[in-house]
């Protein structure tokens, strides 16, 4: 990327054309290494099915107050009632608060691993066993991540994963059943081919822009304008990923065969290594202008993004996106069932955390440019505004 070009730093990894024909690699990490896995279009579909499979409908599920909201919607739609426990200002689950909130109505514990950083899964496992209830391990943001030598998603009774947040695939979620208890899980049907094709082309076009600079951006814009017209004319239903709400109409959609092919061809260990490298680079260059949420990267962690603490999210987002960096406002809202006044630390997190991309597509050179743009944006945020006299 030339420094004179406008940057293009997508929030998610892009699809390289060679990945469409690359041979499969042996999957050494879950869910690909798991013998009892089922694949879905969305991870939220796996959440819904987990509630039904474990017969939790009619009972209460104890969930973290720091959540996206769509997983809570899936729990509610499946017939269970969410209750919430405390999460601290460093994404630290308060296990003592979890224990205090367990009642005879509690039918399961729900743990989210945030952005690749492991939660206290061993302590939650112990607590679940003491009360004879299952532990649901939500790894939607933590594909490929481990707690030391223990892969996330393998300690709970169920592990739930999202593929398209970490890998350059058009869709994909997974449900892994751990332990000896067997469950009969039907294989869901493949999604509409047109929807998969649309997402795949979009990821290929993003890769074109990533590699091609200004020329790639122009080509991407041209192809997108033509493609949008064709999709509209053909009345193609595109089942969007990354949506904010659970939709019952899509609960039975499975993962496309193309997604599985692309996923199995990925160098998973290489992806983890690249993400860790990029995270360390940002940490080293930003820690003096923005106190890091995590000042280290524990062994085994594959960071989904760099969580940056800011004071004015909207202003920072606008500055970064103007420069071509697709930063994301991370988990801004509570689900309506959760009372924000009961969890002030989570309310503060929702006001202050931005996602800065650090995925495997981004070279050290690009990450250095990202760091400089972020530093300048943070400095601009702190400068007193000039007012007309």
Automatic annotation (TrEMBL):
InterPro entries: DegT/StrS_aminotransferase (IPR000653), PyrdxlP-dep_Trfase (IPR015424), PyrdxlP-dep_Trfase_major (IPR015421), PyrdxlP-dep_Trfase_small (IPR015422). GO terms for molecular function: pyridoxal phosphate binding; transaminase activity. Keywords: Aminotransferase, Pyridoxal phosphate, Transferase. It holds the Pfam family DegT_DnrJ_EryC1. Coiled coil: none annotated. It comes from the Bacteria. One of its GO terms (biological process) is polysaccharide biosynthetic process. Belongs to the DegT/DnrJ/EryC1 family. This is Aminotransferase DegT. It comes from Corallococcus aberystwythensis.
